[in-house]
Every structure is written in C-alpha cells, then in structure tokens.
From TrEMBL:
Residues 470-776, 785-926 form the Outer membrane protein beta-barrel domain. GO terms for molecular function: carbohydrate binding. InterPro entries: Carb-bd-like_fold (IPR013784), OMP_b-brl_3 (IPR041700). It holds the Pfam family CarboxypepD_reg. It comes from the Bacteria. This is Outer membrane protein beta-barrel domain-containing protein. It comes from Flavobacterium sufflavum. Transmembrane segments: none annotated.
Length: 937
C-alpha cells in the first residue's frame, strides 16, 4: 500500500547524500534482480524527473541501494539481493513515498508510483502501511494486523499497538499522554468513561483504532485553535459488525464453597441497524472487578454534596469537591474491603438525514460494601507526641441512577443547535462503628471514644444545556450562544451516638455522651449564559470576543437535635450545632483573545476581567457578608509542530477558586468529638498561576517515542486548615484559613523504542515531583516539603500463538520534612510486575501475573513492608473460538494485605484494611454474533 508524507523520517538530506556516495563506491554486483518502475505526479499524471528512489533495510533503516528517475520518470535499481526492503522516494516538491516490498531472484516491476505534491497535502504527514497510517495529528492502526487472543477485549488490543500503553490499573497512555476519551464510531460510549468501551467491546469487532488530540467543541466550530485538547481514541467498528448484533456472556463461580462464594456475571450486547446503534451491559459480582474507584464515584455523584466554585481562564465556572461533609458519608475505596457490585446500562444512538443526532445513555449502579480498618498514627505538637489507635467497621449500601442525553440538530448549512441534559440520583445508607484511644508519651491515656454514625442520604444532580452556532459566509467568522443550568440537592438524615471519655495524667476526668439526629438540606443552583464572536483579521490571525454572566445561589441548612428521654424522640434543637446559611454569587466576564494558527505554529494570547459580587447571609446569626472582587485572568498558549508527529507546547493560565459553602458557613461539625471542624465566613478566594511545558515526539517507522513535561504552579490565598490541638486532652479544632507560599513543580521524561533485532519494546520513564505546602498548628505557621523521584522501566515482547510477556519495575525515593519536626523522613519503594501468557497448542493458554511490592523501613516503622500478589488462569477455546472455558486462581500466595503507610505534615500513620484473599473460580464465556454473518463465513 502507499505511504505518503512530506518530511523525511529517516535522515536529513546531508546524511542521505553522504550515505548515497558511500554506497555508490561499494556497490556489489553479485545478484541479478532488477527493481524498476515509473514515478508520476498523482494529479496530472506527468513524469517526475530526478526523484531519488532508495531501498532501505527494514531492521535498521540503513540505505542499501539508490537511483534517480529519468526525464520520463523511469527508474531501475540493479543487483538487488533477495529479501525484504523499504522502498522510499524523495523529491523537493513532492511528499515522500514509502512502501514495504519483497524481492526474490526475479526482476520486479513496481509499475506506477504516484506522488502527491507538498502543496496538495497541505504540509500534512500522510503515512500508509499495511498496519499504520498517519495523517496530521491522527495515527490510525489497522486492528486485524495486531494479533490478540480469541475473544479478547479492546484493552488487550491496545496493549499490542506501538506507542500505546495500558497499566495494571487500566490507565491508557498514547505517545506519553493519558487518554481521556474513548469514542466508538465518533460517539461517546456510555458517557465519558474510557473503561466502558475498552473493557467490554470485543477486539475482533474493531476495524481501526484512531489516536488524536480532540479539540474543544468551540475550536472545531470556529476553526481557531484555543489550545484545549483531550487525548482521544476512536474505535471504528467493522462494517459487518454494524449489521445485526454481537456480544458476550461471561460467568464464573468459586467451586467447593458454601454460602460466601466468589462470583462474576457479565453480559454485553450491541445491535446495529442502519444509523441506529443499541448497546446494553450488565455486570454483577462480588470480587470487586467492576467496583467504582474514587475517581469513578465523582462521575456517579458521590462528591456532589460539598462543592467549591471555580472559574478558569476562559470564564467557565465549575464545581469541585473539596473535602469534609456534614453528610458524613464514609469514604469507599474499592481496593479495600468486600464489595458486591451491580452495573447496568443502555446506550441508544441514531441519526436521521445526517442532520439530527440523538444519544441517550441511562445507567444504574449499586454497591454493597463492608470493610474493617485499623489505624495507628503519631502526631507531633511542639515537643509532645500524641499516639492514636483506632478500629472502624464500615457497612455501605449505595444506589445510583444516571441519565445522559444529547440531541444535535443541523438546522441548515450554517446553523445548528444542540440540547443536552443530565440527571443523577444518588442514595446512600451506611453505618460506621469506631473504637479509638489516644495516648501521650509513656502511654499515658488522653482520651477514649466509641462512636456509631448512621447515614441516610439522598442526592440529586440535574443539568441542562443549549448551544446555538452560526457560521457566516466569511471563513472563520462565527457566532455562538450557550446557556446552562444545574441544580445540586442533598438531603441527609443521620444519627450520631458516641461515648467520649477524657483523661488527665492517665486518670479519668470527664465523659460526654452524644445521641443526636443531624438533618441537612443543601442546594446549589447555577445559571450561566455566554456569547462568543470570532473575526478573522488576517489569513492566520483571528480575534475572539466573548461575554459571560454567571449566577450561583446556594443554601446550607443544618439542624442538630438531641435525644430527649422524656419524649423518646430527637426534638431538642442544639443551636450551637445548627445553622442556616445562604450564598449568592454573580460574575460578569468579558474576554478577548488573539489567535494565530498555521501548520506548524499556533499560539493565542488573551485576557479577561471578572467582576464578582458575593452576598453571604448567616440567617441563624442574622449576619450578612458582602464582597466585591475584580479579577484579571491572563492566559497564553503556544505550540510548535517542528516535524512529523512531534510537537512542543507551552501553556499558562491564571484562575481563581472560591471557598465552598461549607467552608464559609460558621458551623461546628462534631461528628468526631475529639476532632471537630468549624467554618470561616472571612475566607478569601484563592488565585493560582500555572505553567505547563510539554514535548512529544514519535517516529512510527522506527517505533521510537520521546516525551517530557514540566509544570509549575503557585497559589496565593490558598485555603488550608489551622489545627488547634490541645496536647493535654488531644482534642483538635480545625478551621479553614488563607495562606501564602504554596507551590509545586513536576518533571517527567519518557523514552520508548522497539529493539527490532530481538523484537522487544522498551520504555524508560524518570520523574521528579516537589511541592511545598503551608501548614498551621496552634496558630503557628510552618511548611511541609515533599520530594518524590522515580524511575520506571517497561519491557514487552510477544510472538503470535506462542507467548506474550511484559515486565515493569518502578523504583521511587521519597523525602519529606516539616517545620513541626526537625527530623527528615525518607524511604524507598519498589514495585515489580510480571505478566506472562504461554500458548499450549492452538486451543490452550496459560496466563499469569505477579506483583512484588516493597517499602523500606524508616525510623518510625522498623520493618520493611513487602507483599507478593500472584494470579494465574488456564483457558481452552472451542468451536472456532466461540466458547472459552477457564479456571483462575487469585492471590495464590495468600498475601493480599491492605497495609498503607503515610507521612502527612506533622502526622505519620499506618493502616490496614480488609482485602479479598486467595480464591479460585471456574468460568465459561460465550462470544456470539448474528447467525447471518456466521453462515456467510
């Protein structure tokens, strides 16, 4: 097949000329094969004169033979030995042509080679081979050329593609950048979760894998690059897979057990009819394989309750969970504990007349989670040390229903309108039982606590958006209007029962029993409207003008009632623990941006002003806080595509962050009697300056990639918590305050290459991270400094139907210090991972993975922390790989221990959680497809 591109991928012109002269002097004439052909212009079919035609050896890309085309475009390469070669042409006015050819002892006529002019390809790289094609910033892989196991999913396919890595946690990286979106035929697949497509779609349904930087919707519309991109993978399905249906059913169960056996049941099916696509999935099990991670829980609404407003450099308002919640919902990390999980969803997409597009995706999730946690910690307060021991039993039942819908209509050739809507209903019931004691030096008892906290929480998130776009007759002159509305509601009804004992010099002093009903009613409503206009002022220059207004209103009503022995009800209001608080924020944001867009260089410089009005009302205390801010939001980005598939990028932005409603509300949270929090209505907004520099270079023919990045950020008025700690009673009151002097710096480097002589892929990744954060203890300011350096190595090799092996190792050095403690704490960690698959004949395969994790002992922890995880699976396929039977064993060595050690500010801690240990499962998979296709085959 053809390979056409405009820049040289193998060597500069000078190097090529020297190599040609050298080989010309030492040409051998022992072979008789002649390679001939004619070079023409692809457009007008005229002969291309004086084009270099060269043969290179595919292993090391060294020049073997060369010649030039004559006035009629003809060329002849004589005395060519039999073997495999890369044929390449080079001409100053045409894009290069590359093709893989096989030469035997007979003469070979390649026929006509049609070259495209550089003007015609608009300076874009176009590479076409049997497996890989590059055009501009898009790299495409022909899926069928990368062999995977029968019935493998897309994730296994991605692991085979050069330049793409998938780590053991399922994170996908392409050319050194983390993939944020995975599309199927250009459409979102069950929302924006990359794992849904790569883990559940079959690899044999994919025709092509495309990797590219997806521009923002506004940039795609205006044609003006705003510097906002997301690394994206698009899975193009085979045409025959878009007719009828395909899917899989997988079930596995633990044998020879009684009631508490391990099981998984997974169903995935997709149906196609014309432009209509319908997919559905059901995942059910108790091994944690499909449990929600902490990042996933954000998508399902777990963080909706406690929101901080953030305005970025483009005036967009977003909301972020910032920690702490009067709901008191337990933190669920599905790597720990035991979880029963049910995930189900349906996706429907359809297009009518190429003008109307509908995408609807409802999803349901339920988690039943249990865990036992034990924790020991030591906190330094001045010259005093406080030691804490605790054990917590957690039981959680969470349910979530989520619906996304998008309706996009092209009204005519210049106008379009897009409607979007999202709903998220989230319900949690949980109970948490804690026993804890705190001692001082010489194990002198400070306090003891027994606590039960029962949660019943309902959350709902509703949002709707409208986007109207209009293109004028003049190119790049556009107008758009957008508006959005969102509502976050949280209702909680919680019970707190605790027995809290205080001691002085180890002797009992006092006891406080708490039995309270805590009722919370919180809501946050946002409305945003904006207009944008772009005007080209030159061929490569454009101005963008925009104006945005945002209205944000929130309320937080929280009431605490004591239990009354007389009425046997919770009917005695505790005014010190109750409060009604409202917040209204109005922001107006004009913005102007100058953009320059060329084939190699793109940049934009812009700035906006934010005029923000705060109106905070403490209804319980009858106090009002009004503030007005004028903010300056500078931003700049620059990108330079210095050669094919290589780029350098610089970004700078300034942004504000508003304190959350809960941080502002002067309400004491006594959920933990000895560790309470208090809001601060005098908090100021913070401002962050952030700089990112990234470079990425990838050579597809040599399968070599180099990537590096440097980032630096500093925040003024960053919100931290001042901890007032009484060393006698070990009681802590934390209050948010503003601080200065916080910054972080990060650097990473990566180099990946294919060692062709042994067909081995290798990747090397050093990194350095440093951050300084301000801390405040007993109103005394200090800081904590953390340094983390690491070096990772990744090796992989596979041979079709023989073996598949990958080995990775990450070494890390950690160093931390704090002004609260003169002692510097440092330790090393190392993580080794081995994945091996061996084929035993045509139908059998044995797979195993091994992880060795080690953590060096420290002054505080006198033992090295080491554990090994070893899993194995044996499978056999039947009936042309339609069926698969397997047996698997998890944690063969029974060492899956959930121990974690942490150093944070003036506290060191170690905690242990329940983990799912050794078990075995027997399973069966049926990969099915419509009978019509099977019959045709």
């Amino acid at each position: 097949m053809l390979i056409q591109y405009k820049q040289k991928l193998f060597m500069p012109k000078i190097t090529l000329t020297i190599a040609i002269l050298f080989l010309f002097s030492f040409s051998a004439f022992s072979q008789k094969a002649i390679i001939s052909g004619v070079v023409t212009d692809s457009k007008d079919k005229t002969a291309v004169h004086n084009s270099v035609v060269a043969l290179l050896t595919p292993v090391d890309s060294i020049l073997y033979r060369f010649t030039r085309s004559d006035k009629k475009g003809n060329f002849n390469l004589k005395n060519v030995k039999a073997g495999n070669y890369i044929l390449m042409t080079s001409h100053s006015q045409y894009a290069d042509y590359v093709d893989a050819i096989i030469v035997n002892d007979n003469d070979k006529n390649l026929g006509t080679i049609a070259l495209k002019s550089k003007i015609e390809v608009l300076r874009e790289v176009v590479v076409k081979t049997g497996s890989i094609r590059i055009k501009g910033d898009t790299t495409s892989y022909r899926a069928s050329d990368f062999k995977v196991d029968a019935n493998a999913n897309v994730e296994e396919l991605l692991k085979k593609l050069p330049g793409i890595q998938v780590d053991r946690n399922g994170v996908i990286k392409a050319m050194g950048e983390t993939v944020q979106k995975v599309l199927v035929d250009g459409e979102e697949f069950f929302g924006d979760d990359p794992g849904m497509a790569v883990k559940n779609l079959r690899a044999d349904a994919v025709k092509e894998v495309q990797v590219f930087n997806k521009k923002s919707e506004q940039a795609e519309f205006t044609g003006i690059d705003d510097g906002k991109t997301q690394k994206t993978i698009n899975l193009k399905l085979k045409e025959d897979k878009k007719k009828g249906y395909f899917g899989k059913i997988d079930g596995a169960n633990q044998p020879f057990t009684d009631a508490d056996s391990r099981y998984n049941t997974n169903l995935m099916v997709s149906s196609f009819k014309g432009k209509r696509k319908l997919s559905a999935f059901l995942l059910n099990g108790n091994t944690g394989q499909d449990g929600l991670s902490w990042e996933d829980s954000e998508k399902f609404g777990a963080r909706d309750g406690n929101i901080s407003m953030n305005m970025d450099d483009d005036g967009n308002v977003s909301y972020e969970w910032v920690g702490g919640s009067n709901d008191g919902e337990p933190y669920v990390n599905t790597q720990n504990g035991f979880i029963k999980n049910t995930n189900a969803g349906i996706q429907y997409t359809n297009k009518w007349n190429e003008k109307q597009n509908l995408n609807v995706s409802p999803k349901f999730n339920q988690q039943i989670y249990t865990n036992n946690n034990s924790r020991i910690s030591q906190t330094q307060v001045g010259d005093t040390f406080l030691n804490e021991e605790s054990s917590t039993e957690t039981n959680v039942n969470r349910r979530n229903f989520k619906l996304n819908a998008v309706y996009d209509v092209k009204l005519d050739s210049v106008n379009s309108i897009k409607f979007s809507a999202k709903t998220n209903f989230y319900q949690t019931q949980s109970d948490e039982f804690t026993n804890r004691k705190t001692t001082g030096e010489a194990d002198v008892l400070k306090n003891k606590q027994q606590r039960t906290f029962i949660t019943d929480s309902d959350k709902s998130a509703l949002s709707a958006g409208l986007l109207f776009k209009h293109k004028f007759a003049k190119a790049r002159r556009t107008f758009s209007f957008s508006s959005s509305w969102s509502l976050l509601n949280t209702n909680s009804n919680n019970i707190l029962k605790s027995s809290n004992e205080s001691y002085i010099n180890g002797n009992f002093d006092s006891k406080v029993d708490v039995n309270q009903n805590k009722i919370g009613d919180r809501a946050n409503q946002n409305f945003t409207a904006s207009v944008s206009y772009s005007e080209p002022i030159a061929k490569q220059l454009a101005l963008q003008f925009s104006y945005q207004i945002t209205y944000d209103k929130g309320k937080n009503n929280y009431f605490t009632y004591d239990y009354s022995e007389d009425t046997a009800k919770y009917d005695e209001l505790v005014t010190s623990l109750s409060n009604q608080f409202e917040q209204a924020v109005v922001t107006q944001r004009p913005n102007v941006r100058l953009s320059y867009n060329a084939k190699k260089i793109n940049y934009s410089i812009g700035s906006g002003f934010g005029f923000t009005t705060f109106d905070l009302q403490d209804l319980s205390m009858n106090k009002e806080y009004k503030r007005n801010y004028t903010n300056f939001f500078p931003s700049a980005n620059f990108s330079y595509k210095y050669k094919s598939n290589s780029n350098l990028r610089f970004d700078y932005q300034g942004s504000t962050r508003q304190p959350s409603l809960e941080q502002l509300q002067p309400l004491r949270n006594n959920q933990d009697f000895f560790n309470q929090t208090l809001g601060n209505p005098d908090l100021k907004q913070s401002f962050t300056n952030r700089i990112n520099i990234n470079q990425n270079s990838y050579n597809m023919l040599t399968e070599t990639q180099i990537y590096q990045g440097l980032s630096f950020s500093t925040t003024a008025n960053q919100i931290i918590y001042n901890s007032t700690i009484d060393p006698e009673t070990a009681k802590t009151i934390s209050k948010p305050i503003n601080s200065n002097g916080n910054f972080s710096a990060n650097f990473y480097f990566g180099y990946g290459l294919k060692i062709k002589k042994i067909d081995l892929y290798a990747d090397f990744r050093p990194n350095i991270n440093y951050n300084k954060s301000v801390i405040s203890i007993n109103d005394k300011m200090g800081d904590t400094k953390n340094l983390n350096t690491g070096f990772s190595v990744y090796l992989s090799k596979y041979k079709q139907k023989k073996y598949d092996i990958s080995l990775s190792n990450r070494f890390s050095y950690n160093r931390s210090s704090t002004t609260q403690n003169s002692e510097v704490k440092s330790f090393n960690t190392n993580e080794l991972n081995l994945n091996l698959g061996v084929f035993l004949g045509e139908k059998w395969k044995l797979s195993t993975d091994y992880n060795l994790s080690t953590r060096q002992k420290t002054i505080d922890f006198q033992d090295n922390l080491t554990n090994q995880l070893w899993n194995a699976r044996l499978q056999r396929t039947f009936k042309k790989d339609e069926f698969t039977a397997y047996i698997m064993v998890r944690d063969i060595l029974n060492q899956n221990i959930g121990i974690q050690r942490n150093v944070y500010q003036n506290t060191i801690s170690q905690e242990q959680n329940d983990r799912l240990k050794r078990y075995a499962m027997i399973g069966f998979t049926w990969n099915f497809k419509n009978g019509g296709e099977t019959a045709k085959k």
